[in-house]
């Protein structure tokens, strides 16, 4: 039996403030209440506005842009006996080329574990440095992976609304 897993991501000024995990029962109701508590906007209203074509930034404003709920089915509810915490760096999609964005959209980078983040970007797992040497990634992705390693991050969130990182090259597209 599949269980619904929901991540509530609280953002403030393009930085992740908190990620909460919700799973059955009442996962949706609890995650929606958390979203409303953080943004002061009912999640049902937020969804209607997104479906009408508004952007997250337009709805939530600059301070809370990126805050959202992510839904994923899982085989069973996560165990609460062992909680793992991982570090995520948030990086603007301005640090990838348009060509690499297209490749990420099609999930065509061999050896890279990545998930589309709606219309806003991607979540990318940071492989170990040993694994990096055996794989060939586009230059902009390799630079971002190196940056993530320098900051001991396990995940990268590429987001179109994130701030520019001065240490990384930007691309116009």
Automatic annotation (TrEMBL):
Pfam families: DUF5983
Domain DUF5983: 88-173
Top-rank lineage group of the source organism: Bacteria
Annotated protein name in UniProt: DUF5983 domain-containing protein
């Amino acid at each position: 039996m599949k269980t619904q897993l929901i991540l509530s991501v609280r953002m403030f000024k393009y930085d992740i403030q908190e990620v909460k995990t919700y799973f059955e029962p009442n996962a949706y109701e609890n995650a929606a209440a958390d979203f409303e508590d953080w943004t002061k906007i009912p999640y049902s209203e937020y969804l209607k506005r997104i479906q009408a074509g508004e952007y997250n930034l337009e709805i939530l404003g600059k301070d809370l842009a990126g805050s959202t709920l992510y839904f994923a089915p899982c085989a069973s509810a996560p165990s609460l006996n062992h909680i793992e915490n991982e570090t995520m760096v948030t990086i603007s999609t301005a640090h990838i080329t348009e060509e690499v964005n297209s490749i990420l959209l099609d999930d065509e980078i061999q050896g890279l574990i990545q998930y589309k983040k709606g219309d806003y970007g991607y979540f990318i797992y940071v492989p170990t440095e040993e694994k990096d040497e055996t794989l060939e990634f586009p230059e902009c992705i390799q630079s971002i992976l190196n940056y993530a390693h320098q900051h001991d991050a396990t995940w990268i969130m590429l987001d179109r609304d994130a701030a520019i990182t001065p240490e990384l090259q930007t691309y116009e597209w």
